[in-house]
Design a protein that fits this description.
Shape: elongated
Number of strands: 0
Structural class: mainly alpha
Radius of gyration: 13 Å
Helix content: over 70%
Distance between the termini: 31 Å
Strand content: under 5%
Number of helices: 2
Order of helices and strands: HH
Largest sheet: none
Length: 40
């Protein structure tokens, strides 16, 4: 599902910026939850 969203963003905007930005935000969420889980 995430690949579909990122590829759709690349095709509609004809660039990598938005797909990279969405990927970065999802990584921030994932690493935040991992960090919170390790700190407890």
């Amino acid at each position: 599902f995430m690949g579909w969203i990122l590829s759709k963003a690349m095709l509609e905007t004809r660039g990598l910026f938005w797909s990279w930005w969405i990927h970065l935000l999802s990584d921030i969420v994932i690493f935040s939850f991992l960090t919170m889980g390790l700190l407890k």
